[in-house]
Amino acid sequence: MTLLEVKNLKKYFETPKGTLHAVDDVSFTIEKGKTLGVVGESGCGKSTLGRTIIHLLESSSGQIIFDGEDITHVNKKKLHQINENMQIVFQDPYASLNPRQTVEETVAEPLLISGRFRKKSDLEDETGRLMDLVGIDRRLRLAYPHELDGGRRQRVGIARALSLNPQFIVCDEPVSALDVSIQAQVLNLLQDLQAKQDLTYMFVTHDLSVVRHISHDICVMYLGQIVESSPSKELFTAPLHPYTKALLSAIPSTDIYAPHKRIPLKGEITSPINPKPGCRFAMRCPHACEKCSTPQTVEELLPNHFVACCRGKALNQL
Amino acid sequence: MGNQTKTVEERTRKESNFRQILHRLQKNKIAMTGLFTIIILIVVAIFAPILMPYDYTEMDMSNMYAKPSLSHFFGCDDLGRDIFSRLLYGARASLSMGIIATLLSTAIGVVIGSAVGYYGGWIDNVVMRVLDIVQAIPGMLLAIAISAALGSGFFNTIMALSIGGIPMTVRLLRGSILSIRNQEYIEAAEKINCSKPRVILKHILPNSIAPLIVSVTMGIGNTILTAASLSYIGLGIQPPMPEWGAMLSAGKTVITRYPHLCVFPGLCIMIVVLAFNMLGDGLRDALDPKLKN
Amino acid sequence: MQTTKQKETSFLSVKNLSVEYTSDDEVIHAVNHVSFDLQKGKTFGLVGETGAGKTTIAKAILRILPQPPARIKSGEIFFEGEELLGLTEEKMRKIRGNRISMIFQDPMTALNPIMRVGTQIAEAVRLHENCSRVQSVEKAIEMLEMVGIPGERQREFPHQFSGGMKQRVVIAMALACNPHLLLADEPTTALDVTIQAQVLDMINELKRKNNTSMIMITHDLGVVAQACDDVAVVYAGEIVELGTKEQIFTAPSHPYTLGLFGSLPDIHSDSQRLYPIEGLPPDPSNLPQGCSFHPRCPYATRACSDRQAALADLGDRHLCRCINLEQIQKGGKKP
């Protein structure tokens, strides 16, 4: 069943230089228990997208439908409910924890506020259970964030996100700031938790290799728009959009005997402020043509595989 | 990371930040000297009536302007009163005014600063412009003006002293809050249904308090100096209540002939201000965990 | 280990380098007995995670470690025949920025925000070459063009450039005096992957043109594959495996190297689960007894905590620091 449906979502910021189109007409659905990977480079709007969906930012237009209910505009009381259903794990394990709170206090705070645990012993039990769930030694409950390493801090953040028993969690680059060997630990943890608690994730990252492992479906964003979305494996075996192809080819390969040919991109990323109509990638695209300056339509070129490119069919011989 | 007497895992009681800070402070010899001096001065001020060899009002005209001797450690003033006793008793006035006035201005400043910093908007603009105006008046002049308007006396002087300190506290706190407000843990707090007051009290204030503590300790030294200046020009504390600034003022006409009337009160003021500054510097270093790591 | 002949032709030779940091009560063993050689025109990769000591090694070569709290406990660094650690600061300053240059990780903080970009490059040039102000600015423009930035932009300030372009400016600055040795500390980590690819290509091109030798510090094995000729894997301040790129990638031998390869999410594989290295990197002020990696090693035996292994030659100068190599290879690689 569809847990989250996003329709034509837009988030614009007014700046002195003009309107910044951070998220521009984004639509997708996520099934319960699945992970949607949202991939893109800096400035593509993926973090803004995540934050807008869970109401850390107010959307400019469009619809957000959660569990069948339209939650685009909510009052304070409804927001409280939403917070118990939709949570977030942040990127920076250093900035996402209050430096003056112990692990125990951080994890227990949402429980305290919710009022569901009046007795001290119940609260302690639940806090302990959450710590076990994310793999932190219970003896560390009195530790402060600066006494823990990045991986453990991130686990505390995950425990906090889980404390209100949400159904949906936005993971905003949760492993980007961690060492490679710790990344793998935390990714495994997130996958285990998804299986155990039937969680639904939106996994935001710039790291394509990480997203393949954890996602069921992936969408690729560029300057606020989704340029391609497909089931996870297919994005890597059959990328259709020129940007996706370039992105995949840019990843340095560890196969020293068969390095793939890199698709070079011209120039730098253009500005998301007052963008011109049409494909925003055209300026850097090796296959740009005249039609690219008109608004692109999203076509389903393969089953469940959507691409926003006027030359998509032609370039891939479909 | 593994250098406490117990490891992080072995901890059974919450080791509050306070103890960690105290531990760091203890290593700073200058700060400990300052702290020690302040403690001695406070003890002296509290037990002054017992410690004074003479009553602070006791006049002995035969000893007018007496030089320091074994019977009068710091000599006598123009009315034959024992300077040492008056200094001991005067510690009460100076220290209490300095501490109370500073704490009062800090308390008011924290309330205004946290509201303004967290809510922002037009309140922020209006309040900051009002404070701009207050701060545009030199602190000393402001204290004089208010003191003259309210009249002399202990409580009036405290009011005069505290108003000048409010803008700085507000600015400090507001700056702290602005830098913390966009941190992810504040976003996280809002996401777990933290009410706005709770966010301020539990998340923002504890993390913005550090610069404030430093400014409070340094502020006390400054306030004592201002109080002394007020008394020097005849406002503030009135005789016969001894106050170091007033004593300094009384001795200024005879400074060339009988310097001891000015030297000892002056030394006291200098020592107390220095002590608070040394402590304040040490606190600033101890409160910054990044410096240690 | 080396004949005199080899020593003379070695462009850079680090011998037995050990660096420690002291803070009030603890001693951090950042670099422990590190030795390696770099041939002229080649790129040497230092691979490892945060805190492994790679940056400290580079800073020691350039002698920009703050002493105190850092202290070079032992070692010698031979660069083009000269021993660097024994030189006076004055002599070292002539080498720094001139014959040895460094690119730091974060382009945001490597440039002075209130100086024009062209001025910063020109300053570097004037420091080391006898030329007029006009000539140095010309050289700065030339360098900018070489890294793909239009020359007119030399009048702009760093904040007017994007992250990728800032890093290119930093590279232009580092290469302005045609250094013989370039130390690159995670030069592309902070950049987007498409920009990273551009910058790596550019570095390789410039290197080839000028026959610059390079030490590339990174945690990304993909970057190593693309840019390096020889590789050293660093763990807890020690080199645990050393060899050519081919040797390391086709026959990784040390359990840590194996673990690194195993924990990498691979875009080409279908595996659903990652195989992380258990445990956490060690506390450098409190390193484990014996082999620093043994608490996390799936192949550890009792002997591992007793003694430090020496670097053993696996053949063809592929070195590995592990006493259990035979057993590991016999038993096949663990998944």
Give the topology, please.
The complex is a heterotrimer of chains A (318), B (293) and C (335).
Chain A: E1 2-15, E2 18-31, E3 35-39, H1 46-53, E4 61-66, E5 69-70, H2 76-85, E6 86-89, H3 103-114, H4 120-134, H5 150-162, E7 168-172, H6 180-197, E8 200-205, H7 208-214, E9 217-222, E10 225-231, H8 232-237, H9 242-250, E11 299-302, E12 305-307, H10 312-316
Chain B: H1 17-26, H2 29-46, H3 48-51, H4 83-119, H5 121-136, H6 139-150, H7 154-181, H8 184-191, H9 196-232, H10 244-250, H11 260-287, H12 289-292
Helix pairs in contact in B: 1-11, 2-4, 2-11, 4-5, 4-7, 4-9, 5-7, 6-7, 7-9, 8-9, 9-10, 9-11, 10-11
Chain C: H1 4-9, E1 12-23, E2 26-38, E3 43-47, H2 54-62, E4 70-79, E5 82-83, H3 89-95, E6 100-103, H4 107-110, H5 117-128, H6 133-146, H7 163-175, E7 181-185, H8 193-210, E8 213-218, H9 221-227, E9 230-235, E10 238-244, H10 245-250, H11 255-262, E11 312-313, E12 319-320, H12 325-330
Parallel strand pairs in C: 3-8, 3-9, 6-7, 7-8
Antiparallel strand pairs in C: 1-2, 1-4, 4-5, 9-10, 10-12, 11-12
Task: Note the main attributes of this structure.
heterotrimer, B: mainly alpha, 12 helices, disordered N terminus, C: 335 residues, four-stranded antiparallel β-sheet, 22% strand
Describe the fold and architecture.
The complex is a heterotrimer of chains A (318), B (293) and C (335). Chain A is α/β, with parallel strands linked by helices. In chain A, 32% of the residues lie in helices and 24% in strands. In chain A, a hairpin with a 2-residue loop joins strand 1 and strand 2. In chain B, 71% of the residues lie in helices and 0% in strands. In chain B, helix 9 runs parallel beside helix 10. Chain C is of the alpha/beta class. Mean pLDDT of chain C is 86; it is low at 1-8. Chains A and C meet through helix 6, helix 7 and helix 9 of A and helix 7, helix 8, helix 9, helix 10 and helix 11 of C.
